[in-house]
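Predict the 3D structure for this chain.
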Amino acid sequence: MFEQNSRYVDIETATLTEDGQTIAYVRRRFVPQAADLAAVGQVTVRQGDRLDLLAGQQLGDPELFWRIADANSAMDPLALTEVPGRKLVIAVGGILDSGGGTP
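Done. Predicted structure below.
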């Protein structure tokens, strides 16, 4: 249903039947705790940086921007690159303790 680089790829789907109509939906995604993610590095924000560009440089895919947002506990991913000099954690798939799937 979702591409392999999507934050929703491992989320279960469910159905709801109401008034004779069945609706399929994706269950809620819970954002992992940043401390539980497998950090692989750090990057310092420069003027003009964007999260998708940093993800492309650091993770090889700009659509993995959400991994940087998760690793830095961002409620507003755009705010992560607003202040030059900020250090951002870079994390890849997997939870440290559980060895689970892609966050």
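Helices lie at 51-59, 65-71.
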